[in-house]
Amino acid sequence: QQPVQSPQAVILREGEDAVINCSSSKALYSVHWYRQKHGEAPVFLMILLKGGEQKGHDKISASFNEKKQQSSLYLTASQLSYSGTYFCGTEITGAGSYQLTFGKGTKLSVIP
Amino acid sequence: GAVVSQHPSRVICKSGTSVKIECRSLDFQATTMFWYRQFPKQSLMLMATSNEGSKATYEQGVEKDKFLINHASLTLSTLTVTSAHPEDSSFYICSARGAAGVNWNEQFFGPGTRLTVL
Fold this sequence. Notes:
Chain A is mostly beta strands.
């Protein structure tokens, strides 16, 4: 079942922060975050595994609330290069297939 | 490390012809490869999962006789779109999941193949 992402789109000025949410109705084993620029393949950002972890690098971090089956991606002090569509991919607990189901994406536009 | 390549990056073909897309893991052994299709401004939709040496598992609604997948080795999977029609025009992306040497949780995506059927 496809995870739900919110918001669908967001426009930021350089230096502003944003949060993108991803929620599922299924028990999740992992959440994967990707950024895709127009006409290109998705670029891996990070994985969060069951256990409720938090991760981050540079000014992009994420959290995974296992109980709520939700993950949030935090973008701080946004840069122009952050523009793109962000997808979360979820892996269901017990599926054993390693398959990811992707949300519909959140289009992020960072303007000067 | 963990690079996945796809070939070709772009292909234009006539309706009724078949097109083969290759997906290679360049520096690791991919025990599982996935094929996705993405229409403009939409999400990635999983078409099939393939494990080396076994038949691919297709998602509901994906015609296995039309989209032939072969995962002959641990570094190569191919997707053949048979008798392509304009509605098959899309961005096809593969991803690979490895075992030893890479984070086995992670899926590494290829750069994608843009197929246009005239």
